[in-house]
Amino acid sequence: DSLGHAAGDSLLREVALRLAGEVPPQGLLARLGGDEFAVLLPGVLGEKGAMELGRRIGDALAQPWVFGDHIIDVHASMGVGFAPVDGQNGDALLQACDMALYAAKAAGRDTLHFFSRELELQARQRLGMLSDIRRGLEQGHFDVYYQPQIALDGETLVGFEALVRWHHPERGMISPADFIPAAEESGLIVPLGAWVLERACWDAASWPVGLRVAVNVAAAQIDRSDVLAIVKTVLERTGLSSARLEIELTESSLMGENQEVRALLNALRRRGVRVALDDFGTGYSSMSYLRSFPLDKLKIDRSFVCALDDDARGEAVAIVDAIVRLAKALQLETTAEGVETIKQANCLERIGCTYAQGYRYAKPMDADATQAFITAWRGFIAPAPVGVAAMDFEADSDNLYGSRRQGTRSRFAAL
Description:
Layout: H1 5-22, E1 28-33, E2 36-40, H2 47-62, E3 65-67, E4 70-72, E5 78-80, H3 90-107, E6 112-114, H4 117-139, E7 142-151, E8 156-168, E9 172-174, H5 176-186, H6 189-204, E10 212-216, H7 219-224, H8 227-238, E11 245-249, H9 259-271, E12 274-280, H10 287-292, E13 297-300, H11 302-306, H12 315-329, E14 333-336, H13 342-351, E15 355-356, H14 367-376, E16 380-381, E17 411-414
Parallel strand pairs: 2-17, 5-6, 5-17, 8-10, 8-16, 10-11, 11-12, 12-13, 13-14, 14-15
Antiparallel strand pairs: 1-2, 3-4, 7-8, 7-15, 8-9
Helix pairs in contact: 1-2, 4-5, 6-8
């Protein structure tokens, strides 16, 4: 994506040549589409032979590839199935390899995984999960909860983070950690994320004008939909001021110095929408991201905040202090996540962290409870934020909840 289609085509040709050099003469090498390849080997090939072939292929691909001034590392995940044990026809065998590949990718790149009946059960459960997500969106089983964000200097209520919740009619409350990854991988995060954004903006429009709402946007939403057009339409439909909306992104959204993401963030900020980088410190935390991408806030991951309570050596304080100092140097605000104790809140205030959220103030709550919390808040409510008008909003809103660009999956199936 970053080097253009010509580079991608050249890389695919190079990969095909390297694969062809390792496939035995009786084997069949095929490109299935995108960056997916398959090898079909007739005759007897046990697990040991398959692992040896996978090792040779991995070694062949591991040699750096040079394109112009760029040196590219190539990696492959491999899924292996055997006939007739794992599949008695071509479709069944390829499906078995696909399941094995999914497990290999989940275990990390440069791995090989064999098909098993346990994987088949997991695949069925995953498909069932996706079916339930679709049904839940259609039948209104999802809800949006809100967790307050408090200014540490004076304990002013400044807004809330919107958090999706799923009330499954049979399984009860399902954790986002269980269904969000499946929604992201399948593309269902696009309609789900658009629904959460609109619901959050409708609810926020009924709050005092000084309160903002922060909504998470996944990398898959940026890849597969026109986030800019969706935000524009939702703000127009709900009447919420742009200055009262904050979009939260993870570091994975910024990887690769993506020009499209930079353009998106610039357009959002020109309109007056704020941008926060979520879970800072747990991913790649590249300093170049902070300098080159337009951001307003860093959210300090809860793992650092929780460590403040038991920090005899002062390591956690030093880490949080470094993040806050870095943010201040870049003129960014900071929000500490997972604040649960007075000790944590006092420490964060001394360090100079801007905002805090966590059980110290309130657990995530539904819309009605959020209204009651606002009414009963013992501190102050922030004054109305200043908005910024945008005149260059160029976006195609014909298919707001559809797919802009389908992502590809790397697949190498050794059959």
